[in-house]
Structures are given as structure tokens and as C-alpha cells.
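Notes from the 1:1 (GR / supervisor)

We went over the backlog. Supervisor wanted to see one worked example end to end before approving the batch request, so GR pasted a single chain during the call. The sequence is below; no edits were made to it. Supervisor asked that the structure be written out right there so they could see what the output format looks like.
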Amino acid sequence: MKTPILGNKNSSKSLYIVSACLPYVNPEIFNSLKKNNATILLACPEREPPLHYGKIASIIRSNNPKEVIVMTIDGSPHCFTLQASVNEAEYILGEKLNKRHFVLVNGSKLAEISPDAIRVARYLHIVDKLAKNNKKFVEDELFKHSLEFKRIKQNRELDTE
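Structure output shown during the call:
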């Protein structure tokens, strides 16, 4: 890589791939990342072309970081592609990566997500089965976290009155 922060001299560092909006949504968490001896890359799939899969794989291959950590905003359809991109980079490279996935829940709390949860999220027919088999849990969680779901639920209740 030609970018100085991505040179091979940094291969002992962790590589953080972070949503570009994280510094605005939660500056405290973002500033805490800067205290680690890590390389931090900001990315926004909404603003940038959808080339993250190959680009992330190339960065990992060239930089050989000790670990890859991706942090995004929970519930963002754009941010989800960063999570999937790191899984896909592992597939493209054909090797097991030391990686961790995190989402910022409700703008305040980081939650670690398993790589399999991200894989499942790509297959809506599987998500649909899980949602149908756990309907109360899914509705309760969506009501806590999704403004869209709350509005739909309220509109449905108004329609039944």
C-alpha cells in the first residue's frame, strides 16, 4: 500500500475499520480507539463506491495486521456492508483472520457480534424463519431499537381502532 499508515511496518498493529459516522455518533468511543496503537480507517459505504470487499482484502493482504476489528452503527443498512466486507475479505484471502465485529447499539453501547450472525443476516430466508420462530422476542427488540418498526406498529394499532 502506498498510504504511509498502511505500510508493512505496521503489521504488528491492529487494523480498525470504523464507520465514518462513529466519531460523530459517539466521540468518546472513537477517541478511545485512538489511544490504542492501531491503524484506524474510516469508511462509509453510502458515500463510497461498493468496492469494499476487494479493497479490504487488499489492505489486509498488504498490511498483514495482527487483528482486524470492524465497528459500525447497529441498524444501519449501509454499515452492514462493512461488516459483511470483512467476512468476505477473509473468504477472498482464503485464510483465517484474527477478526472481531462490533456494532454501536443506540449510539452508546458497543456489542460484539459473531461472524455467523453477519452471515445469517445476508440470507433473508433464514432471518425470516428465525423471526417467525421468535416473533415476540423480535418484536420486543425491534420496538426498543427501530424507529421504523415503532411507527409501523403504531400505524397498525390506529388502523385497528
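Supervisor's comment: The chain has eight helices and five strands.
Batch request approved.
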